[in-house]
Queue: 2 jobs
Job 1
Amino acid sequence: MAILVIAEHDNQNIKTSTLNTISAAQKISDEIHLIILGKGIEALVNKAKSIHVLSKVLKCDNEKLENLLPEISAPVIASVSSNYSHILAPASTFGKNLLPRISAILDITQVSDVIEIENENTFIRPIYAGNAISHVQTNQKINLLTIRPTSFEKCEDSGGDASIEDVTYVETESQTIFINREVSKSDRPELGNARVVVSGGRGLENSDNFKLLYDLADKLNAAVGASRAAVDSGYIGNECQVGQTGKMVAPELYIAVGISGAIQHLAGMKESKVIVAINKDLEAPIFNIADYGLSSDLFQAIPEIIKELDLLNQIES
Ligand code: FAD
């Protein structure tokens, strides 16, 4: 049977998290369909049909789906579910909001935050903030899975020619209405997709000092993240929180500055390829997982690193 992947998108582009989820689907079957919901999604659907491994793109284009309210989207996806053995969504805010509602409609248990697929019925997921790994076997008719995007490489997004099929909109009574969306704008890369992430913790002491991290991030074309302590103290917005209750990231390079390395923080970044820690306390647990550690006062170390990077840039140009 085919597998259905639910597309996360911003009306312009399919998000990378969807490409990671499609890669996870490839571990189960060769027949993968993508469903895109929204309003005015013609161009998006045409882009998506060239994703290499897809055989079909399902689309439901309706003005009521403009803001992708999960209460309104879930019945549409549930209406096509009987054609599929597995329905996958990214374990992002989008997927975590939507899949439980489909699960409730279908009366099927969802398996969340899958990091590995052992076989079509057995899935591996972290529990206790990543301190234990559980193997979950299910014998349900349809498997509903949220996939942790950082655990799967993104699939090729070109070279394919999938067919397109319309899905009928399902009228739903919902108490939820869309009022407003506030999107934080930044010239820096998006935290979830950045190649380099520079994260700051309570050691930064206040929001003004975060400017040091922004300067460093600009030199490295990096996204800026933070620990929950820094977010709770109001040094930086909560969209920047990395960890168990924040974003999961797995960049090529993660630089943790003034972060102790609590398990809840590690849960969100320990899959990063190279981890650098800057902390004045040599006993800080972050050093246990760091590939490179600098035991130093950050207020001394970061300006020096920025100076060195400037020098390097001058030599290169
Ligand atoms: P601290 O632990 O206070 O560490 C600050 C570090 O800065 C210290 O190691 C110190 O040596 C160093 N430092 C201080 N001054 C300097 C200096 N001048 N130069 C260099 N180093 C310096 N946390 C998250 O991050 N993300 C989550 O998603 C998250 N979810 C949670 C969920 C739950 C249910 C719970 C209970 C907790 C969660 N936490 C989360 C909180 C977590 O337990 C820690 O409290 C938090 O990560 C600590 O943040 P921190 O490392 O910035 O602060």
Job 2
Amino acid sequence: MGQGLLAPSFQRIDGALWCEGVPLQQLAESAGTPAYVYSSSSIRGQFARLSGALAAIPHRVHYAVKANGNLAILALLRSLGCDVDVVSGGELHRAFAAGFQADRTIFGGVGKTSAELAYALRNGVHVLSVESADELDIIDRLAGDLGVRARVGLRVNPEVTVESTHDYIKTGQKGDKFGIPVDQALTVATRAATLPNVALVAIGMHIGSQLTDLAAYGDGLVRLEELIVAVRSLGVSSLEYLDVGGGLFVPYADEDPADLERYVALIRPVVERTRLTLVVEPGRFLVAEAGVLVTRVLYRKRSGGRTLLVTDAGMNDLIRPSHYQAYHRIEAVDGIATRATFDVVGPICESGDFLAIGRELEDVSSGALLCVFTAGAYGYCMSSNYNARPRPAELMVDGDRWAVVSMRETCEDLVRLETATPTWRNG
Ligand code: LLP
């Protein structure tokens, strides 16, 4: 068993997997399965790594709440000095519920509603990241109605070539729905400068997630810097931030992690030349490796020459393998020496419901516990109730302490907002 492959906060002790000072088996027995388990030391470590790498540049780290919005994770990041990036009124509500002040929030997203924008403006979010000329006009009008000055950033689509692990998570290429196309950005910036109720404080981009080639940041920054120079030459002096978005690569198998030194080397000269404060919006980088999904093998069976492990976690709990053909390392919680090849599938009534296909792992039987790694980002937050399955519990570990940080849903929760006896509203 390759100890070196394990995320540092997860290790084997006498053959059994532990998260920090707590055996995963104990967590599974106490809290049931499936369950997400988060290591706080991993989150602290990743935040320290990123902050350390950026130390020489004036910067703010705005965690992308979409990666994992659990309140305990948000509160932990807040305590470390991290800020947040949200993309819906719901995420803004989460951030406030976790104790973030409005001046630590950036509100982005391609389709914010007027109600969401008004909520953000009333609460004084630090930067509203604008993704279209239409949105800019609506923000100006809403801000006027509320008697406030909106602090806006422009999210630019720099239209560069983006290398990532999946097409669905590329966002900075020509024709993508995100951001203001780079050739329209100066026009929108000029308009922002003339509107009475907005102040243009940021220029930024987010070109994609799980970026396998850092060069795309450099390519995008060339375009942003040209824009910043052009905007300033119009007499705009309100710019404060250069936002490079998220996207840092995280290893799910044995790939190399993102080269932070090179990342900073690409960004630093632009920050220095523009004399802006850097904003980064990492999601996956801060939380992916901190989380695992613990699931129990319900049945082992043979079909068509394959050996199937049917687990109690399905695509409703972790959709990434099915949706992005994403690889997640899987290991038995109780290490055993012999190995076999399995399709690890869930209980959902779809053939696309799998955690891994043709995967070699420990030769486990029904009843065994499996640990699905690198599930801290885009795991629980993308889960659903499909097949009327209550969502799993989320647990946090800190040293040898652990806590339930979101309760397992119950069947009662599944029907709480519904009625079998409609109250007809008309006639
Ligand atoms: N900023 C913006 C504007 C974003 O849209 C995103 C992610 C981030 C920051 C954070 O990116 P990260 O550092 O996590 O790469 N569900 C997909 C990932 C979707 C990412 C969406 N945007 C997955 O499971 O791979």
